[in-house]
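Page 42, continued from yesterday. The earlier attempt failed because a stray header line got pasted into the input along with the sequence. Redoing it now with the clean sequence only.
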Amino acid sequence: MRAALWLISLFSLAVAAAWLAWHNNGTVTFFLMPYRVDFSLNLVLLMLGLVVLVVVLAQQALSALLSLPKQAQRWRLQQKERAAHAALLESISNFMAGRFLRARKSAQAALDKEARLKDAGLELDHAVALRTVAHIMVAESAHALQDRDVRQTHLQEALDAAKEGQSSERQALTEGAQLRAARWLLDDRDAAGSLSLLKSLPSALGRRMVAMRMQLKAARLAGQPAQALDTAVLLAKHRAFTPATADSLVRGLILEWLSHLHDPESVQRMWLNLTLAQRAMPDLAAEIALRFVALGGSVALAKPWLQPLWAPLQSPQAKWTPDQLARMVQAMEACLTDAQAADARQWLARVEAAQQAQPQDARLQYLAGMVCLRHQLWGKAQSLLSQSVKGLQTPALKRKAWCALAELAEQRQEPAAAAAAWKQAALVSQS
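This time it went through. C-alpha cells are written below.
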C-alpha cells in the first residue's frame, strides 16, 4: 500500500513538473558587457539542481574518505569481538558435551581476547557480561575436573567482574555466580557451607525455585530435617513437585526428623509444629505417637493424636499398606493401655463397636482383644485374640497376640496351652 502511494505521488509530481515546464515561458538574461546572454528559466533551474547534486555527492564522498580509518578500526573491533564471543560459545558447547578441558581452554581464550582488546583501549559493548560468563565457564569446567583452586579463583574473578556492570546486569551476573557457588559446595558435600551461602543471598533470590531446591538438598545432607521440611512445603506450594511426589517427600522428611528426636518433649514440640494437614496423615500420626510413648511420653497427651487413625482402621483403603495399618494398630494399642483413664470405657466401646461392624478383620480383632485384656475382660480377650492369630499377617502383631494368649493361659493355670502359645510366639519371631 505504501509503495503504491509513493508511486502515485511521484507520478503526480512528474506530471506537475512537466506541465509547469511546458507552460513556463520565462527567461533569464545575463549581461556580460558588451554581451547579452538569454537562457530559458527551465534550463537555469535544471543546472542549479545539477550543481546542488554535485556538491552533495562530493561532500558525501569526502566524508566517506575521511571516515575510512574509523571504519577500518570498527571492522577490526567487530572481528575481534566475534572471535571472543565465538570462543565463549565454543566453551559452552564443549561443556555441554562433557569435554571439560576443551571448555576451560576455550573460555580462557575468550578471556585472553577480551583482555587484549581492553589493553588496546577497545571496550566491547558487552565486555562485563562476556568476562563474567567466561570466568564462570572456567570455574564450571574446573569444578567438573575437581580442580577446586582454579574454581575458587575464577569464581572470585567472576564476582569482581560482575561488579563493573550496570545495576540490572550486575545483579543478574552476581546472583548467577552465587547460585553456582552454592551448588558446587553441595556437590562437594559441604552442606553447612552451601546453607550458609544460600542464607546470605537476598530474600528474593532465596525464594526462587532453584535456590529452594538446593536448600532442600543441603538441609537434608546437613541433618536438618526440620528446615528441609519447611523448604519442601514451600516447594510443594509452588508446585515444584507432583502431588504424589510432594506427599511422599513430606512424609519422608517428617519421619527423618522424628528419628533425630530422643526425648518426649522434642517429639511433642515437633507435633505442635506440624500443619493440620500433616497431623491428619494417619501413618505419620501413628509413628509419632509410638515414638512419643516409647520415649516415656504421657499416654494421655498422645491419645488425642490418634484421631486420624480411626477412619483408616475402620475402613482400610487400598493406599495403606499392611505394615502401615499394623503400625496404626500398634499406636492405638500403645495409647489405650491405661484402663483407669477417664475416657477408657468410651474407647473400649468404640473399639468393640468397630470390631463388631467388621467381625472378620483380624487387625480389629487383635486391637479389641488387647483393649479387653487391659480392662481385665479375660474371656472376651481370649476369644478375640484366638480369632485374630488366624488372620494376622504382620509378624509383630501376631507375636504379641500369641504372647498375650500365653499369659492368659498361665492365669488360667493351663500350662499346656501356655507352652503351646509361647511356642507359636517363638516360631513367629524366628520366621
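Notes: The chain has a mean pLDDT of 81.
Reminder to self: strip header lines before submitting.
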